[in-house]
Amino acid sequence: MWNTSIPHLFYFMIRHLCYYQRMKKMLFIYNPKAGRGRIRAELADILDIFAAGGYEITIAPTRKNGDAERIAAERESEYDIVVCCGGDGTLDETVRGMMQNPGRTPLGYIPAGSTNDFGGSLALPKDMLKSAEIIVDGMDKAVDVGLFNKEAFIYVAAFGAFTEVSYSTDQDMKNAIGHSAYILEGIKSFMNIRPHHMKIEHDGESIEDNFIYGMITNSVSVGGIRGITGDNVDLADGLFEVNLIKELRTPIEFQQLLGALAMGRYDLSDRIVSFTSGQITVTSDESIAWTLDGEDGGKHNRAEIRNVNRAIDIRVARDLLSTKDM
After folding, report:
1. 3-class DSSP state of 157
2. Where are the alpha helices (DSSP H) in 178-324?
3. Residue 272 forms beta bridges with which residues?
4. What is the CATH number of domain 153-309?
5. Please, what sign has the CA dihedral across residues 180, 292, 219, 47?
6. CB 3.0 to 4.6 Å from 80: which of 24, 105, 253, 322, for a disulfide?
């Protein structure tokens, strides 16, 4: 009797041990207001996909700005993966929180906002359930993260014309009319564009001029406009795509600028300065308003912007990975 019970006891111990080993811990941060609050209708199905994938899930809804950053910073180390669901702002906050920790927990992203620029760069589907399936079945891709005066951002730091649009536009307006909200607010602010005299330094070079706009990006789109950041964008090459627009002095220069932007041919306008760099310093005599990933980045008269190469791992579809990512 003793000899037969030991194998059975051993079998059940191994079975339960394997069960607990299979259970992975997930921190799920989501913004219930993003994208017209559509996550609410699909939340149960998303959680079911994660549970079926072997995850024990801790759910953390955000209630105000800064919640995602705080939650990620405080609790990342407790989990096998952190997942955020919301717009680019929710992603930005989550990355900012995770960058405060020394570990390298993978990040999953379910785009659910009005624009979802970085989700498009990662080829994540707009269908939230399909994005959830990628988190379960996909693989991790290392991507760059930016530091703006030591504050993390994931895909864009911008100044000048229209930079206040994304965070000054009311959330309910964004939810109601989506991208049109940004366009309408942008048109209203265009008449008030004022150039700023600035010095931009990078890689031993210095550019000093009057600028109305500048964006330092690591994304294939900004504001939902694909191709505006340039061609052959690589999210893990240690470089930003930098595009600056000088002061427009005549209506002809304005028309040339619009044509160059529409065609993605920045060489057609001498008002556009473009280059790539891993480190840029921007200085001015006055404090300039910046946005980081579409959120208020404060006003600064000096900005030191650095690319942290392959700083974070984000879950993507397996067929998106190239050989060098493996």
Report:
1. strand
2. 179-190, 251-263
3. 245
4. 2.60.200.40
5. negative
6. 24
The conformation of residue 184, written as its DSSP 8-state character, comes to H
Tokens of 71: 């939650």
CATH classification code of 2-145+312-317 = 3.40.50.10330
The residue with tokens 């959830």 is 132
Res. 325 pLDDT band, cuts 50 70 90: low
In the chain, domain spans: 2-145+312-317, 153-309
- Residues 282 and 299: their CA atoms lie apart, in Å, by 12
CA dihedral sign of residues 61, 63, 68, 69: negative
Q: How far is CA 162 from CA 66, 93, 114, 225, in A?
A: 23, 21, 17, 14
CB 105 within 8 A of CB 98: yes
Terminal Cα-to-Cα distance of the chain (whole angstroms)? 52
Residues 71 and 276 sit within 8 Å (Cβ to Cβ): no
Do residues 132 and 30 lie in contact, with contact meaning Cβ atoms separated by under 8 Å?
A: no
244-294: per-residue pLDDT in tens? 989 888 878 877 777 777 677 777 788 889 999 999 999 999 999 999 988
Q: β-strands 24-30, 81-86: how paired?
A: parallel
Q: Phi-psi category of 138—alpha, beta or left, where left has phi over 0 and alpha has psi -120 to 50?
A: beta
Buried b (16+ CB within 10 A) or exposed e, 202-216: beeeebeeebbbbbb
**Domains 2-145+312-317 and 153-309 equal at CATH topology level:** no
The whole-angstrom distance between residue 289's C-alpha and the CA centroid of its chain comes to 19
